[in-house]
Amino acid sequence: MWRHLTDAVREQQALFDSEVASWIDRYTRQGGKLFCGKGCSNCCTLAVNCTFPEALRISASLSALQSAKVREHTDRLLTNVREIADLKSYLRMHRQRIGYCPFLDDDCSCGIYQERPFSCRALLSTRESRWCGLDFAELSSEEKRAFVESLDRNVTSFPLHYVAATQDRGRALETETAENMASRFGFSLYGNLPFLVHLEREHHLSRIIPQGIGTTTSFLDQNGLLNPFLVTVDRK
User: Which of 76, 141, 175, 220 could form a disulfide with 226 if both were Cys (CB 3.0 to 4.6 A apart)?
Assistant: First the structure.
């Protein structure tokens, strides 16, 4: 029932990787520089979202140890998110209290690199790793102004230092994946990456979704899992 959706994700990811590689080649030949590399994991404290088919593909690849880390991570999420009232607070909470992605290995490399979602594949930094882990609220006005003025507006997702073109393409592929799911089931799911993986690993959500949007939302609500910062249910 899900195979055609997860196969489509795999094919889209392979295409996206090729497109990203071509973009990087053009950018570096023109004198640009990117700072992403194995072990530079500051971006792995960000709140990463994905579609449910992406999470389903990741869920099927996990080891028992990775699954246990996801469970612990989700427990922290559910405990801390109860007191959050707005998106800005949620993003700060995620970085400061939740910590690193549960899929990071001990050497700070990605343990799901081949299956990582579009949002991770799309994130390319035009600044050193320290900028990816910085809370800009802690910078002075002068520091913020200097940072913003240093950015190439033709390349970055202004006023941040990440590449705009790859992020735009990643979002388009997310939208396509969500639409494919909605065409099949009448609705789509989008949300926090580890949380969606947890919903599949611990609750087998892929078996519930075919029963319809009402049954799915009721299940999530009754189990205290229907938090708007963690999962969004969109009707077709």
Answer: 220
